[in-house]
Design a protein that fits this description.
This protein is an alpha/beta fold. The protein is built from seven helices and eleven strands. The strands form two sheets. A nine-stranded mixed β-sheet has the order 3-2-1-4-5-6-10-8-11, sandwiched between helices.
């Protein structure tokens, strides 16, 4: 399987790249900065420098041709303001979906956020509110596309703790946390789980082995 990951230098993306390369998949990671390339190579992925904030759908489609799946794992990141939440977390995801359709790549995994909602209020943190609205709008756009076999994954609070290998994956899990390693492991399983197409799934730590949790969600 050839998989293209947007946000290829992100913490979840690097973990996913190592997992996919380790099982023999061909992995390309889209990055914005050339100096990030060495980290992707070390993870077993081919780096592709492409700024999704300024790229065109047609140009991005060329990078996706021949892929079996795409994963949107990009994000504006901590320290960015509300404007970049929109240009990265929403607009870049929409651009990647447009490009996937143009390139004929049907499988699309979206790494979203628990509570994402395009009508989310600002609350006590206007930038986080903007992030939740951007993610919600990107999810809604993706879910409107019949030409893509999409799955939206909404993890809870992300941790850098060691992987547990056990999760709870369902349409509604309730609030919780989950390690980035376990998120990557779930994404790797979702890529080959056609029963999860058209599903929006929440993910937190739990008691079920990852492969079994994905299998149950796909049934």
């Amino acid at each position: 399987m050839r998989v293209v990951i947007a946000g290829g230098h992100g913490q979840i993306a690097l973990r996913l790249e190592r997992l996919l390369a380790g099982r023999g998949d061909e992995v390309t990671g889209i990055i914005r900065k050339p100096e990030q390339a060495a980290d992707l190579t070390a993870a077993g992925a081919e780096p592709l420098v492409l700024d999704l904030e300024s790229a065109t759908a047609a140009g991005t489609a060329e990078a996706l041709r021949g892929a079996d799946a795409v994963v949107f794992a990009a994000g504006a990141g901590p320290g960015s303001g509300a404007a970049r939440k929109d240009t990265v977390d929403r607009a870049a995801a929409v651009l990647l979906a447009d490009a996937a359709e143009a390139a004929g790549v049907r499988r699309y995994l979206m790494v979203s956020s628990m509570g994402a909602d395009q009508n989310a209020p600002d609350g006590d943190d206007p930038v986080f509110g903007a992030y939740q609205r951007a993610k919600g709008a990107a999810d809604d756009d993706l879910r409107s596309r019949d030409a893509l076999d999409w799955t939206v994954l909404r993890p809870g609070r992300l941790l850098n703790d060691p992987p547990t290998g056990r999760v709870r994956l369902d349409e509604h899990t309730g609030r919780g946390s989950v390690t980035r390693d376990d998120v990557a492991a779930v994404l790797a399983e979702l890529l080959t789980a056609p029963g999860t197409v058209g599903r929006t799934l929440e993910l937190v730590a739990g008691d079920t082995p990852v492969a079994d949790a994905v299998r149950a969600a796909a049934s």
